[in-house]
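thought: fold this chain, then report.
action: predict
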Amino acid sequence: IAWDRVLQQARTAMPETRLARVGLPKPEASGVTFRGQAPGEWHPVGRTVVTTSRDGTQTLLRYDATADRPGARLANAIYPLHIAAVGGLPMKLAMAFAGLLPAFLLITGILFWRRPRYRR
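observation:
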């Protein structure tokens, strides 16, 4: 694989995209796939994909996630919220609190249920 030409071809196909991940091809595969983050994408790695030939002479596939229909863009926007990749430390703390809340409610519910009831 001519990596210098493959990288150049991928950058040429998606000039605004920050390339973040490379999919190493199997020996019988005809292309090298890159995944990147286009401007406006919330996903930390991005959903934009470009596949180039192994010799770096042509672009085999170009998928721009920012050009999707609104429903697909909404679905792609929800995932970074799910993994707390946006919002920084406050979002991570809120997600940790939300994750611990069911255990807290379970324990306090059991304690209140087991508490002796005093009759007047």
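thought: worth noting. The radius of gyration is 23 Å.
final: tokens above.
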